[in-house]
Design brief:
Blueprint: H1 2-36, H2 39-70, H3 74-107, H4 115-141, H5 144-168, H6 177-209
Helix pairs in contact: 1-2, 1-3, 1-4, 2-3, 3-6, 4-5, 4-6, 5-6
């Protein structure tokens, strides 16, 4: 019975990693689409979100069945509950990538990003791509230094998010209403993407160390 449970938990971990890899691809392609005005990439991200949704449903069902059939306790139960929450965060990260892709599609053949904010959005995109890769690495290795890196990158994303908003009300800003809305939304999407990554990192830290705060992330 324990052998079966161990195999099921291994399959659950593999599913989360598969979800994370889909998120990696989605944020990479969505960012390139919005920065470069690539309609095909935008459409690909939007179409691929269904696969991530299907994996999310599969993970959720697997977790519920494990709880019902195996009645886990202690660390096993915490691992399953953490998996449910990580799955939800990954699904939301995929949705945020899809929102970015939809913004690229809506603005095509033009750009959703005015020149005044292009460097900021580009940096947020690069940080989000890196964060997505590190989330996958963290799920594979549970390396606490990777968890710490995710938190540090999110701090920079938050600072850029704030700077983007301040730029919109600066007297030198000349963007029109649609550009202002696009920048505000894109900055928010990237900021929330980073927040969900931090949430995943803190859940892994808790599983490894028992620390709720994430303060033991770096070793």
């Amino acid at each position: 019975m324990r052998t079966l449970f161990t195999a099921e938990m291994s399959d659950l971990a593999d599913d989360l990693i598969a979800m994370s890899r889909l998120v990696e691809t989605a944020i990479d392609q969505a960012s390139d689409a919005v920065l470069n005005g690539d309609l095909d990439l935008a459409q690909s991200v939007i179409a691929s979100d269904e696969k991530l949704d299907e994996l999310t449903a599969s993970v959720d069902e697997r977790c519920v069945l494990l709880i019902a059939q195996q009645q886990p306790v202690g660390l096993d139960l915490r691992s399953i509950i953490a998996s449910l929450r990580i799955s939800a965060s990954l699904e939301r990260m995929g949705d945020l990538a899809e929102h970015i892709a939809k913004d690229a599609r809506r603005s095509f053949p033009g750009s959703a990003i005015p020149e005044s904010h292009r460097d900021m959005v580009h940096r947020m995109a690069e940080l989000s791509k890196q964060t997505a890769k590190e989330v996958t690495q963290l799920l594979e290795t549970r390396d606490l230094n990777v968890a710490a890196a995710i938190v540090e990158e999110d701090d920079e994303i938050d600072a850029l998010h704030e700077a983007a908003y301040k730029g919109l009300v600066d007297e030198s800003y000349t963007g029109n209403a649609q550009e202002t809305l696009d920048v505000a939304l894109l900055a928010r999407y990237y900021e929330r993407f980073g927040d969900h990554a931090v949430g995943i990192s803190r859940r892994i830290v808790y599983l490894v160390t028992g620390d709720h705060s994430g303060g033991d992330a770096q070793i």
